[in-house]
Amino acid sequence: MRKVIFGLMAVAVITAVSCGKNKEVTPGGSGTKPSVDPPETATSYLDLSKETRSFISNNLLTSKFSYRANTTTHATNCFEWYNASQIYADAALVAAGDETALPYMNKTFAFMESFWDKTDLRGGYFASVNLDGTGAGGDKFVDDNGLTGMVYLEAYNVATGADKQVYLDKAKACADWLINSGLWDNTYGGGFWWNTAKPNKPSQSNGVAMQLFSKLYTLTGNTEYRNWATKVNNWLRTNMFDSSTGLYIWMVDGAGTGTKHIEKFTYDNAIMIEADILYGKAMNDASYLTKAQAIGNAMNTVLWNASYKGYIFNTDPTQTRVNPAWCGWGTQGMIRLYEQDKDAKWLTYAKNNIDALNKVARNKDTHAYYYFAGFTGNDRAPEIEGVDQAWMQRIQAMMHKYE
């Protein structure tokens, strides 16, 4: 998982293609400045999700059932977490009652083997391949592999027949790679490095790992997953939780004891809501739902723009643009809370966040989402990233259940 940080770091070319906070494309002043489209409130969220899926099928899908990274600068590349996120999106459509998404989900899952490292007994997913599945290589990312494991567990929930076991087995393979990758060490008192280059230890990488270990322990009863879930949870709470805001910080890096980067991001904390919920279920500890609710309340205090009625990208005061995937993740966090406690306030935030993103980042004619857009719909970036389409498809399909 990758993010561009404006005002937080020097402008540099970052060639990593994981789901973390760096990206080689810097969207900005070259973007369009349209008048704001009206929010798409008259159409059901399921219809919106299907419209997004139609754009994806017509513009990003290949004959191999891979997906182009975007329609501009990386139209000949496949990124691992983009393709995994599309499986996540299709699983949500299936769960919403659209069975037509199931074969796409299964065929893209088969393509995902192109990313898997077959030269290493530990396996693990590389971050990028060509559209035909050739050319896998480079670094492997903890957050990509952790998230993909969680994607497969959701696909497991909607799959049928023998496919269910295949999805579960591959989710376990993702977790087993994390355990055996050598990317957990005693630097900064523990924690997973972001990737095999070991530049930093972020909250989000550890958060998705905690989710995966917790969920797998619940499903399998394997105590190794329980022990790893506890190890990751303890490190996160000790090192990355900011009690003054009730939120998790970005990352720790540097020499010695490390430098803590205390910026707060919407998707980091949405990930931690789900991590706490799953950990609490795995350990039969109700206090973790309380912790998850506290993160949700803190997000809705610190990371919510009351005028825009949507989640901000991060707490940098100069950051006045939103991204469909990373800001949209806040909706998933709120839905997860509602699933547990049935407090309607979470759904209000979840719905308003989708509506805000539809208002400022969605092209009403093509149904595509721009990579970044300002709070008023200004400064739309020219890139149409596959992962942004996938996440909007997903959260709108999830929201449909509560229309």
The ordered H/E elements are HEHHEEHHEHHEEEEHHEEEHHEH
- What profile does the largest beta sheet have? 3 strands, antiparallel
Please indicate the count of domains: 1
Span between N and C termini?
A: 29 Å
Q: Order of strands across the biggest sheet?
A: 1-2-3
Q: Which runs of at least 5 residues are low in confidence (pLDDT < 50)? A: 3-15, 23-40
Count of beta strands:
12
What is the gyration radius calculated from CA atoms? Answer: 19 Å
Quick one: CATH class?
Mainly Alpha
- The level of helicity is 40-55%
Assign an overall shape.
globular
CATH architecture: Alpha/alpha barrel
Q: Figure out the total of helices.
A: 12
By CATH, the topology is Glycosyltransferase
Percent of residues in β-strands: 5-15%
Helix and strand composition category: mainly alpha
**Mean pLDDT over the residues:** 92
Protein name: Glycoside hydrolase family 76 protein
GO molecular function: hydrolase activity
InterPro entries: 6-hairpin_glycosidase_sf, Glyco_hydro_76, MUG_Protein
Pfam family, one: Glyco_hydro_76
